[in-house]
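Give me C-alpha cells for this 327-residue protein.
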Amino acid sequence: MDKKIYEIKKELKCFHMKTYNNLETFRIKFLGKKKGLLTILFKELNKIPINKRKTFGKIINELKKEVQKKIDIFKHKNFIKNEKIIKFDPTFPGKSIEIGSIHPLSIIINRIIDIFQKIGFIYVDGPEIEDDWHNFTALNIPLFHPSRDMQDTFFLHKTPDILLRTHTSSVQIRYMKEHNPPFRVLSIGKVYRNETISSKSNFMFHQTEGFYIDKKVSFSDLKQTIHYLINSLFGEEKIRFRPSYFPFTEPSAEVDIYCNREWLEIMGCGMIDPKVLENVNIDSEMYSGFAFGLGIERLSLMIYKIKDIRNYFENDIRFLKQFKSEF
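Here you go.
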C-alpha cells in the first residue's frame, strides 16, 4: 500500500495539464469510477489490517482532495464552464437559432382581418368575461328564452350574472352603445361553451363576429360580403344560404360551401333584429344592418384539411412548424 501511494504521489506531481483533453485524462486516471488509481486504492482498503485502514484512508482522501484541487485550479485559470474551455474562434460557425412559425389559427385570423380591412371594416376587441346583459339580454335573448339552452354557459358569479362569453356578439353590443352609425366592425376572440372535447369540438374556440350598420343596408349587402369572404379564403366555391334561426337576427341564415364534394356548414348570419338596435339606442326606423359569425377552428380545419381540432392546443412543434404565414 505504501509503495502504491508513493507512486501515485509521484505521478500526481509530474502530471501537467495544458488542454481539456489533458484534464479529462488526468481526471479519469486518478478518479475514474472503474480504473482510477485512487478508486482502486479505496477498494483495496478492505484487504489491509483494520488498525491501518484509518491511517491509509486518511492519506487516500488527502490525495483525492489534491487531485480535485488541481482540476479546479486548471478550470479557473482556463475559464472552463461545464467542463469545456471557452475560446473564441472567428472561423467557427455560430449557433443556429431556430425560427418559429405562426400558429395556424393566427394565420387564419390575420387573413380574415386583412380581407375585411380592404372593404372598410375596422377591428375591435372586447372582454372575455361578460355580464348577462351584454352576452344575452341586449341580443334579444331574455331570461328563460329557449335559445339560451343552445349555449351551455360557464357562469363565474350569480346576482349579478358574470360569465365567460359564449360568442363575440357581445362586442357588437358594446361597440354600438358607444358609437353612432354608420360603421363596419370586425371582432375576433376566444369564446367558451361547456362542450365535450373531441376531434370536432372544444370548450374554448375562436369566433369571428362582423357587423355593418347604415341606412338602407339589405340582405343583398350581406350576401355580397359573405361571397367576398369565402371567395377570398377558398377561391370560387359554390355557396348556399339556408333559412335558420338566431334570436339577434331576422331573417337569419346558415351558410354552406361545396367543398371536397360535399356541402359543409361554415357560418351563421342575418339582418340585425330591430329589437337589438333599440337596446343600444339606435333608431331601427332609420338604420338597418347585418351580422355574421364563424368559428376560426372549423375554418382552419377545412383550409388545412386537419382532422382533429385538438392538434391546435397540444403545442406539438412537429405540427406547428408545418404552417407558414403569407404575412
